[in-house]
Structures are given as C-alpha cells and as structure tokens.
Specification:
Structural class: alpha/beta
Distance between the termini: 54 Å
Number of strands: 13
Order of helices and strands: EHEEEHEHEEHEEEHEEHEHHH
Shape: globular
Helix content: 25-40%
Length: 306
C-alpha cells in the first residue's frame, strides 16, 4: 500500500514512518526536508500551507495525518491532496472538558479544557473541519503518548533523575493517575484500521488501565536498576514547574478500541524501550529546567522523604 504520513521527522510521525516502512508499506512523508529522514521513505518536500500541486499527481491508499493541530492545517492539506483512500487523523483527549463526566466516551461533549486551553479547542476545530469535508475519516483521541523517539520531557526527566540518584519530588502522595498509550500500539491500530475499515470512525485510544504517578516514577527508575527516594510536595506550587504533567487526572473509555485491538504493550516493557532509546538519543528531547527549579525552590522546604 502507498501511504502518506504528514511529518515523519519527530516522535509519533517519525515512529510511524519507521513502523510502516519496516512492514513493507510504500511510505511517503510530507515535510520541509530540513531534518534527517527515516531510511526507506520517499520525501515529498513541502509546506502543508503552500502545497500547490506537489501532491496532486499522487494516489494514496491511506493518509495518516499526524501533524494537524487546527482547522487550517486540515483544510490546507485537503486542498492539496489528489486521490486518497482511508484518512486517519490523530486528534487528542484534550478535546474533552475537565468538567465532563468520566470516563470520557467518544459521545461525550467537546469544549475547552482549562488545562489544555487553545490546544484542545484547536483540535476540536480540526475534527469538525475534517468531518465536514471527509465524513468517513477516522479520528483517534489518545491520552499521553510515550515510547522511543519521544521528544517531550516526560519519562526522560525521570530517567535523568534516576541516573543522578536524585530524590524525586512527587506531587502530593503520588496517587494521581495517568493513562498512557505506546506509540507502537497507535501504529498497530492505524494498520488495523487501514486493513479492516471498521464501522466506528471516532475512537478513544489508550491502555485500558491507568497508573499512579508514584507507580510510573518507580517503573521509570526500575528501567535503570534504581529505586526512587520520594519527597512529597504538598505545598500549593504549580506542578508543571517540577513534574512532567499537569495536576489533572482523567480517564478515557477505550472499549471501542479494545474490540479491534484488545492487547496493548505492557507499560514497564514500553518504558524499558524508552530508556534504551534515550541512552543514545538524549539530544533529541526538549528538556525543561525542572531540576533547577527543584534545587532553587524546593530543596530547602523541609519536606520529608517518604
């Protein structure tokens, strides 16, 4: 099959380019050509907002739109496309407002989420624009994505703390839960959709079970053969200054996805893959000065290790 992947040089789109190439797909990637490309892909050099006729002569069996963030991104790509079959758009769980009843279902209302703000409302607009023009498109709404090639400073931050044998500053008692989805599972699901063309076109995706942040940090340390010493931060401090996630717990109902793909990658296995990749690719991660903030603002608070 001939498929088009938007992007192809960073995290999800890069992993997808590698995944589908290794499985024998004829993979084309659309990007500006300013970064190293995944071996085996065909580069279509261009800006999705100024495509002209660069895509018009191509016929794709599937389009994997991984890099649309708003309605303009959707419309400009659709305007530039020639003939194509299955269209899959990677949206986000940020489309659900924090006030909506959980677990979020695909039929739940969509509106601004105070934690995600414009990012979430732009994704809502992108979904609407797509469905107006391609009613049979597939829309996937993941929670936190993780895996090799992740350039967001999440598990990599914990790995850095473990490597330096730092105490880990944990939000509260660490009971807040997070829901994850491995990027390989996302690619597996897209492959199933391309092959089977299921009836459901809007789908929450993710691991069926959530994990507490304490458990997640322990699993990250374990990847390096370490065990964390925790300091519980119970003061009213913006969590993202010293931790990788917002102070926001939510849960997606992924039962529709499970009918297509009942088994997902074990979290510890997935984190171990992340640690192995990070060992030789730390320069690809956009690091934030969280340890500096901890050292300058939290280390002398007299908080007790637990």
């Amino acid at each position: 099959m001939k498929i088009l992947i938007t992007g192809g040089t960073t995290f999800v789109s890069k992993y997808a380019a590698k995944y589908f190439t290794e499985r024998g797909f004829d993979v084309y990637v659309l990007n500006r050509g300013t970064k190293e490309q995944v071996p085996g892909v065909t580069l279509i050099r261009g800006d999705r907002h100024e495509l002209g006729s660069v895509l018009k002569s191509h016929t794709f069996d599937a389009v994997l739109d991984i890099t649309s963030y708003n309605a303009n991104d959707i419309n400009d790509l659709l305007d530039g496309l020639g003939s194509y079959g299955t269209y899959i758009f990677i949206s986000s769980s940020a489309v659900y407002p924090e006030t909506e009843a959980q677990p979020f279902k695909e039929e739940s209302s969509l509106s601004e989420n105070k934690f995600w703000g414009k990012y979430g409302t732009d994704k809502i607009a992108a979904e609407k624009a797509l469905l107006e023009r391609v009613p049979d498109a597939y829309i996937l709404r993941p929670p936190y994505l993780y895996g090799p090639m992740n350039n967001v400073y999440r598990e990599a931050f914990v790995f850095d703390c473990a490597k330096k044998d730092r105490k880990f500053y944990l939000p509260g008692d660490g009971s807040m839960k997070l829901q994850f989805f491995h990027v390989e599972d996302l690619c597996r699901l897209m492959e199933i959709i391309i092959s089977e063309k299921p009836d459901g076109h809007i789908m929450n995706v993710g691991n069926a079970s959530s994990v507490t942040v304490r458990e997640w940090v322990c699993a990250c340390y374990e990847c390096l053969g370490k065990e964390p010493e925790f300091v519980e931060v119970r003061k009213n401090i913006e969590q993202r200054l010293y931790f990788s996630f917002y102070n926001y717990e939510y849960y997606l109902d992924v039962s529709k996805m499970q009918k297509l793909m009942p088994v997902t990658k074990d979290l510890k296995e997935g984190l171990s893959e992340c640690a192995d990749w990070y060992e030789g690719n730390d320069s690809e991660v956009r690091k934030k000065p969280m340890t500096d903030y901890i050292d300058n603002n939290l280390a002398d608070l007299g908080l007790l290790p637990t």
